[in-house]
Amino acid sequence: MSILITGGAGLVGMALRELLADLGRTVVATDAVSHGRNDPDLIIAQLTDPVAVKALFASQAITAVVHCGAISGPMLARDNPNLVVDVNIGGTARLMDEARRHGVRRFVFCSSISVYGSVGHGRIDETTPLRPTSVYAASKVSGEALVDAFGAEHGLDGVSLRIARVYGPHRRGNCILADIIRNDLAGAQTTIPCDPAFMYHYVHVDDVVDAILTMLDAPHLPARRYNVGGGEALTMPQIVATAEQVLPGARIAMVPGEDDVPDVQTEFDISAIARDLGWTPKVPLARGIGLYADYLTQAAEAK
Question: How much is the pTM?
């Protein structure tokens, strides 16, 4: 019995593969590219290719799917919205169709905090209206709707995780935390354009994969969507102060500007997943920056 992981060469996918391997679980990992790694266990397949998607299920007894594969953020493919739609909506529908045809027990969809859009001040919980401000965010809203529809119409047992800003090993997209650490290693300054009152919601990848494992192993899912975050809402000055405590030599300057994803989201409520399934984050930002710094230091020394 195998767990299929899409986006298996990405940030969440790589961490999830490592965790499941440690637990002795059988994994089938796929991604569109290998990102230059020597990864013989990774199956290269495009979710937009129906033949390739069918083949993922044909040779393995897939009992669960974790769908991390996507155009993975609102800052990516901004000039190619059709690609975002084809991959994130069409690919998700194609994957769910094969999952239901093969009697998959559980389908975990990695959605995003971006589905809420620019909420403004106030608490964001799973009942907050969705007002996406990017095609990427809209594609995640559509993916969640597909999870609901395939469950209602075809009995596919699915859940959507609305995940905050993920950081940690194997992240390839823009990440201020990675920039701070890499610049510190190089003896360079990090300059961060920001609004000092803007709130950030970071979550370490280890907490994300722990939440996914919780979804895979739960005998019953009380709800079909859950917020997943690190439990800390921090401004950039607070993030910088934390980074400077962990990396005493870091040189960081903040200048006027705005984040790449300027949706205003002040309080991200993760109490539902704690109440229903007992999951809480275990990696506060200070510890997470330290873990990330250790990884990037080792990676630099290995070159």
Answer: 0.95
